[in-house]
Amino acid sequence: MRKVVTDDLDALLDILPLHIRESLYQQPDHSELLEVVLDLGRLPEARFPHRELVLNSREVTQSDIDYVVSRIGEFTGDNRAGINHTLHRISAIRNRHGEIIGLTCRVGRAVFGTVKMIQDLIESGKNVLLLGRPGIGKTTMLREVARVLADDFKKRVIVIDTSNEIAGDGDIPHPAIGHARRMQVATPTEQHAVMIEAVENHMPEVIIIDEIGTELEARAARTIAERGVQLVGTAHGNTLENLIMNPTLSDLIGGIQTVTLGDEEARRRHTQKSVLERKAPPTFDVVVEIVDYYKVTVHPSVAEAVDALLHGRPPKAEVRWMNEAGEVKREAITSPIMWESKEGKPEKPTEKPLRFYLFGANRARLEQIAKEGRRELKIATDLRQTDIFLTTRSYYRRKPQKIRDAEALGIPIYVLKSNNATQMRQCLDALYPRDTQSTYVHHLQRLLAGWRGFDSSNQSWESGGRRRPR
User: Fold this and answer.
1) Going by CATH, does the domain composed of 113-334 fall within 3.40.1010.10?
2) What is the C-alpha to C-alpha distance for residues 114 and 326, in angstroms, rounded to an integer?
3) Which of 103, 113, 152, 455 is most buried, most CB within 10 Å of its CB?
4) How many whole angstroms separate alpha carbon 447 and alpha carbon 369?
5) Beta carbons within 8 Å of 7's beta carbon, 6+ residues apart
6) What is the spatial distance between Cα 137 and Cα 325, in angstroms, rounded to a whole number?
7) Edge-to-edge strand order for the sheet containing 35-39?
8) What is the Cα–Cα distance from 247 to 392, expressed in whole angstroms?
9) Per-domain residue ranges of the chain
């Protein structure tokens, strides 16, 4: 069906301690190896496409880890390293003192044929965004996109290679990207600057970007698209819905804003007065959700798909797959959306109790107000089990460690001016809508309300009031 070229598997196995290497060679399917995991004091593990295996009964020692580290390149700011002239990647886990106590050795492969399913989209010159879970093959597909556009279509292609994962380690790019040029990035935080530099200095026709993950990178992508340069990239998220619910990356698909309708328009639409709308044209014209190696779901018009989702309609999409003969098959579908019942009719909102982490906010008062409004909530004690981080302005201004931890975890932070009942009530009004709009759209409103913090001196979220960004 497709040609798979392993990028010198022996080069990766040669950096492993002898007892681990020998155990791997004994496996009949060692050529399908995905990664090797070495954690200090634990047994070494190997991961294959359909199984995980403990390699032997000998625990990993510090000398085993040091053996591997001494045979690879230098770790960068994102704790990743590689092997010269290969696509393999070694990622480190460090303790609090900065010492390496764990390694993930991932096999890098150049795979030819994966781009066939979306080749017409790439040829069209449209901006294409690839989504999918980790390890599904996003970077592999990007690699071949770069090669096809540079070699077959003779375009000026530049790859922004933040972790040297697309074109391999070392200063000479791996042949898998063809004649595409590669720009390396010193640290992950500089990726957005290198993206802009590539356009300003090197006159590319196509920019290839892996792992767009920050607001600055999303803005840089929009700037590049507005200059007429074709963009092909990947982002964190499995589906288009994930991007809509991600306030950091939603700008890639146009951004989401709340619009207050007039009484007559709200009645005409049979909806509430405060609704969600797409803010601007999407940066990417097409979104491709990678289901597995041989199957993708294509949203050919991101603008139409996002508008449909926000209005409670299932978006139109196309499923593409490759059969055993290497032929690409297509089938138009109407994607099911998460807020529909099996009969296809919108369900009534069934709000799940929100988990609040209180930092400086009065627990007894909040619970009393929730009880009066017949709203269910839970008080969380673990940040990782939290939906909403609620604090007051005096605490927020000092930025103690707890608030920094919540921001790092991406938890929506609501900031009250003080601990009075009126402001807490307004906060709960924003979080617990009382109309018949879909539960999914309510969830988007919660995320948007918590994105920049909640200023309770303004009107509530549901009434369409303005919130001052934090």
Assistant:
1) no
2) 10
3) 103
4) 22
5) 86, 87, 88, 107, 108, 109, 110, 168, 174, 176
6) 21
7) 51-54, 45-48, 35-39, 100-106, 89-94, 80-82
8) 22
9) 3-109, 113-334, 354-451
Partner residues linked to 212 by β-bridges: 235
* Contact partners, residue 349, CB within 8 Å, separation at least 6: 433, 436, 437, 438, 439, 442
The per-residue pLDDT for range 52-88, each reduced to its tens digit, is 999 999 999 999 999 999 999 889 888 999 998 899 9
Count Cα neighbours of 58 within 13 Å in the Cβ-side half-sphere. Answer: 11
- β-strand pairing of 45-48 with 51-54: antiparallel
Mean pLDDT of 371-382: 86
Q: Is 47 exposed, middle or buried (0-12, 13-18, 19+ CB in 10 A)?
A: middle
How would you classify residue 164: left for phi > 0, otherwise alpha for psi between -120 and 50, otherwise beta?
left
* Cα 265 to Cα 272: distance, rounded to the nearest angstrom: 10
Phi-psi sector, 345: left (phi>0), alpha (psi -120 to 50), beta: beta
d(CA 357, CA 402): 10
Q: Which amino acid is at 318?
A: E
Decide whether 113-334 matches 354-451 in CATH topology.
yes
* CATH entry 3.40.50 includes domain 354-451: yes
Give the tokens for residue 16.
């492993």
Q: Is 254 left (phi over 0), alpha (psi -120 to 50) or beta?
A: left
Fold of 3-109: Beta-Lactamase (3.30.450)
